[in-house]
Amino acid sequence: MRRPSSRLVTVVVTAIGTAAVLIAAMLASGLPAAAGSHRAKPKDRGAEQLGDPEYGVCRGTDPRCYHDWGNFDPAAGYKILVYSRTAGPRHANLGPALAPGLNPPLAEANVAQSALVKMGKDNGFTVDWTEDVTRLSSAGRLFAYNAVVFLSTTRDTLDDAAQTSLRQYVRGGGGFVGIHNAFGTEYNWPWYEGLLGGTNFYDHGPSQPGTVQTNGRRDASTAGLPARWAFSDEWYNLIPFPSRVRILASVDEGTLERGAEGGQGHPGHGASHPVAWCQYYDGGRAWLTTLGHDAKAFTDDGSTFPGAPQFQKMVLGGIESTMGKKPFCR
Length: 330
Description:
Blueprint: H1 6-29, E1 59-60, E2 79-83, H2 111-123, E3 126-130, H3 139-142, E4 147-151, H4 160-171, E5 175-179, H5 190-195, E6 200-204, E7 208-214, E8 228-233, E9 236-239, E10 246-252, E11 274-281, E12 284-289, H6 296-299, H7 308-323
């Protein structure tokens, strides 16, 4: 039996020594020594770019993505449909579930729906409302509206017919407005995620006051708003980060005393935490905001809920621009 050469013994000993040094360094640096060990959470940075998905449609801020096919006549006036059906947890500002059909009676607790109806009356456009998914069953029916507003809808709130109709409606130049938990809707439908700006709700931290920064002050939804204004909300954290959109407003995470980290561990978005944006998408227009958790945000004059008038003005401008009544996504 041949003995190993002295050179081979030296190489083996050196390799063993190097491995020992690396293991010691890993343990000293605090890296996990075994699978399943607790990992340190990122510090001093937010979850800004988690994915850059593609949706196979024309999308972004270029108006050439819009299909102006003559489906809407401004001379006929402007009209929106507010859809607030929930297939999961229901926000308190929606009140009790609505009866089937179009424009069922609204109870006093149906605060958010009533606020949008009043907004239309005060600003010269018609508002219909429903939680009946069959009212979204044909694109032809939806083309009666310049925009469809998803108001804190939840989870799988559309059936197959409604999904098809919504997509055809948007492709024909229709407008879509998503408010608050519209981001917690239709998780398993990639086209809808793209409609939201290539994103959806992941988690949120505690409901708390913060400062909104108006980024796109030329846009119809943010024109006239102060550069910074107080507001309270849940401050949604998103995955993926919105892409190819024009961010119109964001929250200054430094003003959140209880932090931006969400209940599922999302660290927040750091220097860029968007709360409102717009885009052209698959032929249509889409305006989105994660804000709108509290009922008072829709009704208060600012005396008891700071920032409510600014929020209402922003939503109004978002609806009007998405309808085509005002310039969109400037």
